[in-house]
Amino acid sequence: MASQGNGVSRLGSLPPRSVALILGTRPELIKAAPVIKALGESGVLIHTGQHFDEGLSGSFIRELGISEPIASLRVGGLSRAGQIGTGVERLEEILMSVQPKAVVVHGDTNATLSGALAANALHMPLVHMEAGLRSFDRRMPEEHNRVVVDHLADLCCAPTDVNHANLSAEGINGGRVVVTGNTIVEAVKAHMPPAAERRRMVADMGLTPSRFVVATMHRPENVDSPGPLRVILEALVDQGMPVLFAAHPRTTRAIDRFGLRALASRLRLIKPMSYGHFLAASAEAALLVSDSGGVQEEASIVKRPVIVVRRSTERPEGLGTFSQLHAPDEKLADSIATALESAHETKQELAKLPTPYGDRYSSTRIAGAIAALVQLYETHTTPGSESITADLLEAQSWAAV
Ligand code: UDP
């Protein structure tokens, strides 16, 4: 990976509560947690409440061992425009009172976009974690969120060289990009139960290692209309082994709304699992079937194959090895059956491959880069400047990060 110095020696220069992390969903909490820990007292969490169910937010904050948010906005349940608009307005007030020296957002959600817009409106230095991911699929709202936030950010933390190249192709380069790896590697290492404990957890669920499937599904194109959701559920039943379907609240509501409860009851339909339980189940499963971004990354760490029920992905790094794309169509059932037939051999092949998401030091690099950004901003920006980025580029000192 390019530009991976960590600048961590500068961390000590960050005062308490000087870095505001604006997060709103389960995967953002999971992947920002290592950075929150690395920042220590310098970091404060602001939660937009995009995910507001206890099983996707409160219990996760406790499980991940991070401090409670200093503010929770509860924008969840509003329309996309409502979440973004209300989010920006409320975040402006909170950021004005906290006066952080940098604002950090993660990923591609409405929380990410509203946090980035609020920081930009207040001329606060903006850091984007998980920058440079592109599906090139303009039907996805997340694609628009990522593109806008990358262009607003003063510092883009790109997990992989692929992400770095995407940013360069859009003219975002030089001092604004640092390749850090993805903090998912640390998150998995920190929360994966040991092997014996995993087998006990799986046995407690009445399952046998390598003899079950783990499935998650939550993207609007898969669950917001009855057609694709029915096709996906039908493809998962009768596969000759139990399917643990950890249903997102959006999916559970859709199953009831579309009268698919009888079909879904032929699977092990369960509520969202704690992170430790979900990782244990994933690591012991024969196969993962999911439309999740985070699960695609985790598949490469737990070394299990994942069928990604989508037409495009912003995470091409694992394609052809850990992951394969599949549309929610009538061929999905056969593809799952084929993957299960060769699951044993696939497991042995995947065990030999490294994850494309880096090592255990991504959070250290990101925290160091944030500290360097703050230092650079304090020493190089023109008082009253409205263009942080221009001044930082002028300073041209990112190579030292
Ligand atoms: N996850 C979990 N419990 C579950 C299902 C998923 O902890 O029951 C975790 C999973 O390990 C991954 C993250 O949630 O890290 C993915 O979240 P989601 O699919 O909601 O969002 P996406 O990654 O697609 O943005």
Task: Label the overall shape.
Answer: globular
**How many individual β-strands?**
13
Which molecules other than protein and nucleic acid are bound? uridine-5'-diphosphate
**Overall mean confidence score, pLDDT:** 92
Largest sheet: 7 strands, parallel
**What quaternary form is this?**
single chain
In angstroms, what is the radius of gyration?
21 Å
Residues in β-strands, percent:
5-15%
Distance between the termini: 14 Å
How do the helices and strands line up, and which of them pair or pack?
Elements: E1 19-23, H1 26-39, E2 43-47, H2 58-64, E3 71-72, H3 80-98, E4 102-106, H4 110-121, E5 126-129, H5 141-152, E6 155-158, H6 161-169, E7 177-179, H7 184-191, H8 195-204, E8 213-216, H9 220-223, H10 226-236, E9 243-246, H11 249-257, H12 261-264, E10 268-270, H13 275-284, E11 287-290, H14 293-302, E12 306-308, E13 323-325, H15 332-341, H16 343-351, H17 362-380, H18 388-395
Parallel strand pairs: 1-2, 1-4, 2-3, 4-5, 5-6, 6-7, 8-9, 8-11, 9-10, 11-12, 12-13
Helix pairs in contact: 1-17, 3-4, 4-5, 8-13, 10-15, 17-18
The protein binds uridine-5'-diphosphate.
Uridine-5'-diphosphate binds next to helix 1, helix 13 and helix 14.
Summarize this structure as a short list of keywords or feature phrases.
401 residues; alpha/beta; 7-stranded parallel sheet; 6-stranded parallel sheet; 18 helices; 13 strands; 12% strand; globular; disordered N terminus; disordered C terminus; binds uridine-5'-diphosphate
